[in-house]
Amino acid sequence: MVEKRISILVCSALVSGILGGCSPSSKTTLAGQKENQSDLIKIGVTQLVEHQALDLAREGFITALKDKGYEEGKKIKIDFENAQGDIPTTQTIAEKFVNDNVKLIAAITTPSAQAAFNATKRANKNIPIVITAVTDPIQAGIAKSLDKSGTNVTGTSNAISIEGQFQLIKRIIPNAKNIGIVYNTSENNSEIQVKQAIEAATNFKFNIVTSGITNTNEIPQALNSILGKIDVLYVPTDNMIASSIATITKQCYIKNIPVFGSESGHVKGGAVATEGIDYFKLGYETGSKAVEVLEGKNPGEIPITKTKEVTTFINKDAVKKLSIKVPEDISSKAEKITGGVD
């Protein structure tokens, strides 16, 4: 009986020893996994709303990082946050990134960039910010100049030539005189573009008719208020409007009012034409600047650049629906798009 008890005690001791030996090993493995995760560079990506142009910019940004050795899950960890079109939410997202001590913030759109800049400034943290799809960084208050921002910001601007867009309208709709613009009054970039449009209109003998909104539910009423007064609707690079482009073109085409966009996503959503930029390339360029920052360069010393390449996009279905004849010299060089038109 004594021998049996001794045998049981010995076995128990052996089992405890084995379990005790395994336990530290398990903790080491888990700790190692955590260490591997903590070794990843944290990048916060903030975007006002999801629509084609902005999504392409984000895709280009991530692709550039990967091409230069910064791959998600291997060297970097990306925290992507979408504000769902709500500007106050951009501030909440920015504050989260600051509290999380991310290594870098990528801000897509002007409101997201302003929120990130303000959050880092309030917290007195010099977290680098790379921007894209921001129309005028200086007017937005996040850069002192494009050559050297003098702040913690670098990146790319999606500013386009209003004159180029108006020239396209004039060539395709030669009798157009009254140009309508529906825009989000809460977006600084939209306010800037409306001002630019009014200034440029005199050179084309255009009259600008505007209607401001603060949320997407106001779009139908805003359009109704001006459709009887305009010959063409021009859509600026306004994120709230872009997310509703299909609704806008449908309502305008019922009244036979052509819609001209400011980027290819608008044309894919049914707009007649635009002279637009490639948002994937824009985002890619931003990603390249992000790599420079991650490798030690001061963002305030890296120029904020604008894309010089523009492409004419034409929606064949919209042209057909509205019986528009596009001049051959424009049509021959344009990239043709179909769809987005009922």
From TrEMBL:
Pfam families the UniProt entry points to: ABC_sub_bind
Transmembrane portions of the chain: none
Protein name: ABC transporter substrate-binding protein
Source organism superkingdom: Bacteria
PROSITE patterns registered for this protein in UniProt: PROKAR_LIPOPROTEIN
The species this protein was found in: Clostridium bovifaecis
